[in-house]
Amino acid sequence: MILPLSVTGVVPLPSLHFETIIGNLGTINCSKTSGSGIGNSQMNDSLHLHGLLEEIYQQLLPQVKVESVYPHDPVEVDNLPQPWRLLGRGNYAAVFCHPDYADEVVKIYAPGRQGFEEEIQVYSRLGEHPAFSQCYYAKPNFLVLKRLLGTTLYDCIQRGMRIPKQVIDDIDEALEYARRKGLYPHDIHARNVMMHEGRGYVVDISDFLDQESCSKWDNFKKAYYWLYRPILRPLGLRVPYFVLDIIRKGYRAFSTFTKSCHRQLGMLLGYKSSKHLKRFKR
């Protein structure tokens, strides 16, 4: 069992400049902390965040290992110290929480995985929206984010939980909001969206700068309206994880195959057009 680090004998916390704090907490001028230039609420928020950062730098980061073994599978997590808890894993990063800081989560990127800088930029553009998280602090390869409570739609389907239409509508509205902010919602699927108390949330925005066309959310909505609502929901059926995993991997293989076919077809049509053009010039 891995015990928490004691207060004595630990590596001192790196110098924390509050200019790196992002989001609602704002930027704090430390020279005015004893004056009237900063409110008590903002000061309390800053001290709260500073306490969390101490736990991160002194306990979490020195011990936990986040590794990307297979690029298209969730990262592997090992050596997680108590009392930290793993909340979720994606293909790029893992998300953790501490019991004393229930409103924040820590997202740690696996070494060698891209997307950290892009995610910061996306959060900066999004600002505040009820369906998205917010970034409070960022240092290379990890973020401190506002915690979103809920259950992923992937888990809802496995557990036979009812997914109201309002959840789908909320996510649609959130994605449209992101587009108005100059972003490109990408890689939105059942693992990256959640519901809580009948409302929908988007939990992964790391690929929102990717301008490549992505139909995952549209395909999920088709399955929701054609399969889930008329069949699965009325019967209260649960779909085992291994079946969902087969569907997920099958979808990826099919998507890769169709993209390859489109590329080959485009190259073929381009080649034929070039030949016809040369004949016409003759």
Mean pLDDT across the residues is 79
Which overall shape is indicated by the principal axes computed on the Cα atoms? Answer: globular
Assembly category: single chain
Tally of strands: 10
Stretches where pLDDT is under 50 for at least 5 consecutive residues are 1-38
* Count of helical stretches: 6
Tell me the domain tally: 2
Task: Tell me the strand percentage band.
Answer: 15-25%
What string gives the helices and strands in order? HEEEEEHEEEHHEEHH
Distance between the amino and carboxyl termini: 79 Å
Largest sheet features? 5 strands, antiparallel
GO molecular function, one term: protein serine/threonine kinase activity
Protein name: Serine/threonine protein kinase
Keywords: Kinase, Serine/threonine-protein kinase, Transferase
What does the model show?
The protein has 282 residues and is of the alpha+beta class. The protein has two domains: 18-146, no CATH class; 151-235, Transferase(Phosphotransferase), domain 1. The protein contains six helices and ten strands; from the N terminus they run H-E-E-E-E-E-H-E-E-E-H-H-E-E-H-H. The protein has helices at residues 40-63, 116-126, 153-159, 165-180, 216-235, 241-281, and strands at residues 65-67, 76-78, 85-89, 93-98, 101-109, 135-139, 142-146, 151-152, 193-196, 199-202. It has a five-stranded antiparallel beta sheet, sandwiched between helices. Strands 8-9-10 form a three-stranded antiparallel beta sheet. A two-stranded antiparallel sheet has the order 1-2. The radius of gyration is 23 Å and the shape is globular. The chain starts with 39 loop residues before the first helix and ends with a helix. Mean pLDDT is 79; it is low at 1-38. Keywords: Kinase, Serine/threonine-protein kinase, Transferase. InterPro entries: Kinase-like_dom_sf, Meiotic_Drive_Suppr_Kinase. This is Serine/threonine protein kinase. It comes from Dulcicalothrix desertica PCC 7102. GO terms for molecular function: protein serine/threonine kinase activity.
